[in-house]
C-alpha cells in the first residue's frame, strides 16, 4: 500500500527537454557573439577597442589599429579593468618594502641655467625701478621680456617658476574681492594635542637587527574607518533607521578625502619623517567609506591610534541647519538682478561672500561640520616576501575594478531602503562652494548662474554609484615608487620584450641642445565606426583573439626556455663545484 502524499508536498515534476526545433530549444543554445566575448575576456582582449588610424609620415601608409579602451571598471571592460588592477598591484608591490630612496636628489644647475636665472633677477630689479618711477611703458616692455625669459628657463630644463607672474589690471583678479580669508589654526579643545617634529627628507622606515645579527625591515598595513552613526545589524543596515544619523554620514562621506590628507600630514609631523602610503578607499557594509593603506616602514600602533583620534577636518561653510526651500518650491532666477531670488518676496538670496562674512564677523562661530575617524583603527606588521604581503596587496586592491555602489550588493529590501535613505540625503548635501544645493538653504553658491538645479547637482558625490566618494579611490603618495603609472606600464612591456627577445629600433635625432630625442614618425587620429576601412567589431575581436593566443603561446614557450636554461646553469654550477671538491 502506497502512503498518501500530503497536499502541497507532491514531488517536483521531472523537467522535460524542449522539443527539437522549437523556440525553447533555440533559446537554450548559447549565442555565438557571447561566446566570442567570453573568449576575448579569457585571453585578455579588450571587448570595446578604439579604432585608431595611424599614418606613416614617411611613406604615407595608413592602417587602422585597435587600441584598448583602458577602462578601470569590470562592468565596462573586464580585461582592461583586470590589467589596471594588476598594474596597481605591481606599483604597490614595488614601493612597499623599499630599502632605498625612490627619488634621487636634483642634478646641479648648469651655467646656462644660472645665467638665465640671473638675467631674470636683473629684469625684476629693472621692473621695480620703472614701477617706482611710474614709467608704465617700460613696465609693459619688461613684463614681456620676463615672460620670454620664463619660457627660456623652462626650455632650458628647470622645473617650476622662479617667481609668481605679475598680474596686470585685468588679469589675476581673485574671485572674491578683499583680503584672503584666514581661519584660526588653533587646535580644538576636544582633540588631544600631538607632538610636532621637523620632518626629515627620508621615506625609508627603520631597520631592525635580529639576535643572530641579521637585519630585516618590516612594513605595515592600516585600516581607517569613520565614526558610528547608530547601531547596525550584521548586514550593515541600521537597527533603528529613525535614529540613524544619515545627515552626518553624508557629510562625512563627502569630506572624507580631506580627513585622510590631514591624517597623513599629522602622522608625518608626529613621526618626523616622510611616511609613504598606498591604498584604496572602499565602502563598508554599512555604506560608510573606509580606507586600507600599506605603509612603508613601521610605526607604533599607539601612535597610529593617537594620531587618528587627534585628526579632524573642520568645514567652514554657511549653516545648513534649516532648509528654507524644497524641491517643490525653489528659488527663481532674476535676469535683471542676475541673482537667485525668493519666489514670494522677490528678495535676492544671501550671496556666498555675504554668508562667509557673517561667519568671519561672529567671534563665537563654529564650523558647520567636523569630520573625525572612529575608534576602530586596525594596524599590523607585514614582512616582505611573504604570502601575507601578497595577500594584503590583493585585499587592498579587491574592489578597485568595481563602482563604489557595487562593492556590496543590496539583496534585501532592508538594504535597499538603507541605500535609498543615504542617497536621498546625499542629493541634498552641498558638495562644493559652487554646488546648486546651497539654494535649498537660502544661499547663492559661488559664481551662481541661471542653469543651477538644486537637488540635481552633477557632482560625483551625488550619484548613486559613488555613495558620496567623489574623489580618487586609489591614493598613492608621491615618493612611493618613484614612477608614474605610465612608467610601470613601460616596465611591464619591457619585461615581455626582454623575455621574448624582441628589440625595438627607434630613430633618434639630435636637437639644438645636443640631446637625443625620438623622432615622431606616425600621426594618429580616431577612426569613425562607419569609415570604409574600419571593419565590423566581431572581425576585429577575432583578429585580436588570434594575435593574443599566439602571443600567449610564445610567452609560455619563452618562460619554459628560461626555466630550462636556469636549471641547466644550476646543474653545471653544481657539477663544477662537485669536481672541485673531489680535486681537493
TrEMBL record:
Residues 1-23, 155-204, 564-584 are annotated as: Disordered. Residues 187-203 have a biased composition (Basic and acidic residues). Pfam families: RepSA. This is Replication initiation protein. It comes from Micromonospora inaquosa.
Amino acid at each position: 500500500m502506497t502512503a498518501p502524499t500530503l497536499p502541497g508536498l507532491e514531488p517536483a515534476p521531472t523537467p522535460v527537454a524542449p522539443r527539437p526545433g522549437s523556440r525553447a530549444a533555440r533559446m537554450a543554445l548559447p549565442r555565438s557573439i557571447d561566446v566570442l566575448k567570453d573568449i576575448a575576456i579569457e585571453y585578455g582582449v579588450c571587448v570595446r577597442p578604439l579604432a585608431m588610424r595611424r599614418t606613416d609620415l614617411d611613406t604615407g601608409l595608413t592602417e587602422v589599429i585597435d587600441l584598448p579602451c583602458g577602462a578601470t571598471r569590470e562592468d565596462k571592460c573586464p580585461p582592461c579593468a583586470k590589467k589596471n588592477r594588476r598594474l596597481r598591484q605591481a606599483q604597490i608591490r614595488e614601493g612597499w618594502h623599499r630599502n632605498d630612496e625612490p627619488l634621487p636628489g636634483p642634478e646641479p644647475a648648469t651655467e646656462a641655467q644660472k645665467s638665465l636665472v640671473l638675467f631674470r633677477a636683473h629684469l625684476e630689479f629693472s621692473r621695480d625701478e620703472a614701477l617706482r618711477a611710474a614709467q608704465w611703458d617700460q613696465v609693459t616692455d619688461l613684463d614681456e621680456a620676463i615672460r620670454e625669459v620664463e619660457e627660456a628657463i623652462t626650455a632650458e630644463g628647470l622645473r617650476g617658476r622662479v617667481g609668481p607672474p605679475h598680474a596686470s589690471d585685468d588679469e589675476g583678479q581673485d574671485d572674491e574681492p578683499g583680503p584672503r580669508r584666514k581661519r584660526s589654526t588653533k587646535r580644538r579643545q576636544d582633540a588631544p594635542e600631538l607632538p610636532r617634529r621637523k620632518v626629515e627628507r627620508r621615506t625609508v622606515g627603520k631597520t631592525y637587527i635580529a639576535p643572530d645579527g641579521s637585519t630585516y625591515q618590516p612594513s605595515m598595513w592600516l585600516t581607517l574607518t569613520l565614526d558610528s552613526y547608530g547601531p547596525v545589524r550584521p548586514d550593515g543596515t541600521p537597527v533603528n533607521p529613525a535614529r540613524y544619523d544619515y545627515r552626518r554620514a553624508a557629510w562625512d562621506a563627502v569630506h572624507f578625502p580631506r580627513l585622510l590628507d590631514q591624517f597623513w600630514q599629522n602622522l608625518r609631523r608626529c613621526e618626523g619623517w616622510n611616511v609613504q602610503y598606498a591604498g584604496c578607499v572602499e565602502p563598508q557594509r554599512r555604506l560608510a567609506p573606509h580606507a586600507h593603506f600599506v605603509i612603508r616602514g613601521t610605526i607604533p600602533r599607539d601612535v597610529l591610534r593617537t594620531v587618528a583620534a587627534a585628526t579632524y577636518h573642520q568645514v567652514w561653510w554657511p549653516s545648513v541647519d534649516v532648509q528654507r526651500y524644497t524641491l517643490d518650491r525653489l528659488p527663481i532666477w532674476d535676469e535683471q538682478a542676475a541673482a537667485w531670488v525668493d519666489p514670494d518676496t522677490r528678495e535676492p538670496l544671501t550671496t556666498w561672500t555675504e554668508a562667509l562674512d557673517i561667519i568671519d564677523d561672529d567671534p563665537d562661530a563654529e564650523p558647520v561640520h567636523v569630520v573625525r575617524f572612529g575608534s576602530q583603527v586596525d594596524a599590523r606588521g607585514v614582512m616582505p616576501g611573504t604570502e601575507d604581503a601578497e595577500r594584503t596587496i590583493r585585499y587592498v586592491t579587491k574592489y578597485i575594478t568595481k563602482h563604489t555602489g557595487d562593492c556590496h550588493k543590496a539583496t534585501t529590501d532592508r538594504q535597499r531602503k538603507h541605500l535609498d535613505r543615504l542617497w536621498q540625503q546625499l542629493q541634498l548635501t552641498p558638495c562644493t562652494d559652487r554646488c546648486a544645493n546651497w539654494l535649498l538653504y537660502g544661499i547663492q553658491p559661488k559664481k551662481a548662474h541661471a542653469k543651477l538645479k538644486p537637488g540635481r547637482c552633477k557632482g560625483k558625490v551625488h550619484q548613486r554609484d559613488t555613495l558620496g566618494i567623489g574623489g580618487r579611490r586609489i591614493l598613492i603618495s608621491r615618493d612611493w615608487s618613484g614612477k608614474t603609472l605610465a612608467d610601470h606600464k613601460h616596465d611591464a612591456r619591457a619585461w615581455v620584450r626582454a623575455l621574448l627577445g624582441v628589440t625595438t629600433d627607434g630613430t633618434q635625432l639630435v636637437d639644438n641642445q645636443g640631446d637625443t630625442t625620438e623622432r615622431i614618425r606616425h600621426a594618429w587620429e580616431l577612426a569613425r565606426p562607419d569609415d570604409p576601412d574600419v571593419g565590423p567589431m566581431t572581425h576585429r575581436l577575432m583578429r585580436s583573439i588570434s594575435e593574443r593566443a599566439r602571443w600567449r603561446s610564445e610567452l609560455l614557450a619563452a618562460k619554459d626556455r628560461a626555466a630550462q636554461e636556469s636549471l641547466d646553469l644550476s646543474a653545471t654550477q653544481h657539477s663544477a663545484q662537485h669536481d672541485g671538491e673531489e680535486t681537493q
